[in-house]
Amino acid sequence: MAPSRAYIHPETDEISLPRVLFALSEPLRLAMVQKLAADGEVDSIDLGPDLPRSTLTHHTSLLRESGVAFVRAEGRKCLISLRRDDLNARFPGVLDSVLAGAQE
């Protein structure tokens, strides 16, 4: 049996505001984060069903590396969720403010 994929995530205290804001500044990634906020944990395919796999991987990796999203493997699926608690611990209200501003 093949080993499960392991993803590296920054620790909560390593999440930086510039990286979070950069990750949220791109419209496609912001739309992905909005879907995660609305739906909870989703399969990565559901974040961009019409995107090429390489584009989807690039954007979800950037969300993971910035500390915005948590990624875990489950079988052949790649499940993604928001790190809302970690982001609120580091930067209270920032995620909610960005999401509220994106609704306008």
Automatic annotation (TrEMBL):
Note whether DNA-binding occurs among the keywords.
Answer: yes
Stored InterPro entries: HTH_ArsR_DNA-bd_dom, WH-like_DNA-bd_sf, WH_DNA-bd_sf
Keywords carried by this UniProt record: DNA-binding
Superkingdom of the source species: Bacteria
| Sequence ranges assigned to domain HTH arsR-type in this UniProt record | 9-102
Gene Ontology MF, one: DNA-binding transcription factor activity
The protein, known as: DNA-binding transcriptional ArsR family regulator
